[in-house]
Amino acid sequence: MIPVVRRLLGQPSARRFALLLLLLAGFGVLLLVTPRPDPGQLPHLADSLGGYAPVAAIVTGALLLVALVPRTFVTLASGAIFGPLEGAAYALGAALLAAAIGFAVGRVLGREFVAERVRGRLARLDGWFARQSVLGVVTVRLLPIAGFGLVSYGYGTTGARALPFLVGSVIASAPTAFGYAAIGAAVSSPGTVNWYAAAPAGLGLIASVVLVHRWWRTERQRRLEVTEPRP
Description:
Blueprint: H1 2-9, H2 12-33, H3 43-49, H4 53-66, H5 71-82, H6 84-117, H7 120-130, H8 134-142, H9 148-157, H10 162-188, H11 199-227
Helix pairs in contact: 2-6, 4-5, 4-6, 5-6, 5-10, 6-9, 6-10, 8-10, 8-11, 10-11
């Protein structure tokens, strides 16, 4: 086992992939030991940031997402600080920036290693990612398979194209961004909960079901076309 590990780490692509795994592990440990902020203190941050608040919110939110902080927490905090509408807008900006960073890091550190070793079904799966449209990215984003940051890193290691991935990431994030930002604003300012605090989140759930069903029907039709003999 040790000689195999040494031989793998002697390859540049393997060293980069190992660095990616160490990076993710480090983020995971940091996430466990970092203290959580007091929600009641969040609204005061916007006043202290002044005119730099939008840029600071997007960049900080993106860095938190890249560090594997759940998007739900980032969006709730954004709503608590800036209110439901501005908070949702900044949360979406952070999601776009974080998706781009995670994808780029995954592509640089992990794509070559994965491409050299995928075979059989994994190769077909990689090809599926490479052919994905925006709808495919939205479908994967809405599935409860992993956190936002982890999915971004994972996509970078596949043959997926950057533009559909980024567009799909923002579209998939939009419904819950408004819902969670409204809830975050309500937590910091009690009594402000209204219908749009829950409606977008419900819309996101409906969209998830519809997209998954559509993907399932498409895959089923494709398999039938492959298995049915041609006349």
